[in-house]
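Input record, target 12 of the design panel.
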């Protein structure tokens, strides 16, 4: 009797049900925001926040390369916060300064127009004789 090949009687029946495989959620690696930090450091650096963001970005990249995802996520979050502050400060403060200059110029022009009447007052000959 030849037993080297399995017979059809002994083959396991194929299962039509899929076995539930455990779902593995792989989170993407944290972003280090390095380009944004370099931009904030070089261009419009407000109160050195861009440099602080650059330091945290480099730390996040180092931790990501080392495999410490949790520390990389913390440093990435701090880098993002400092980048947002640096960008907002670099955009909002010049706009606020420009708005103050414009409103000051408008106010001074109105004040100058009102004072023109005061300085162009001409004395009549009877006013000079009274003195």
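The sequence produced for target 12 reads:
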């Amino acid at each position: 009797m030849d037993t080297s090949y399995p017979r059809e009687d002994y083959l396991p029946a194929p299962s039509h049900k899929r076995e539930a495989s455990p779902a593995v959620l792989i989170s993407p690696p944290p972003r280090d925001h390095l380009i944004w930090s370099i931009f904030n450091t070089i261009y419009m650096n407000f109160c050195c926040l861009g440099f602080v963001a650059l330091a945290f970005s480099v730390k996040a990249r180092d931790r990501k390369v080392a495999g410490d995802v949790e520390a990389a996520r913390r440093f990435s979050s701090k880098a993002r916060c400092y980048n947002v502050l640096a960008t907002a400060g670099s955009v909002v403060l010049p706009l606020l300064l420009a708005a103050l200059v414009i409103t000051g110029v408008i106010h001074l022009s109105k004040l100058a127009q009102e004072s023109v009447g005061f300085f162009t007052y001409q004395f009549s000959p009877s006013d000079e004789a009274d003195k």
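The CA atoms of residues 35 and 54 lie 9 Å apart.
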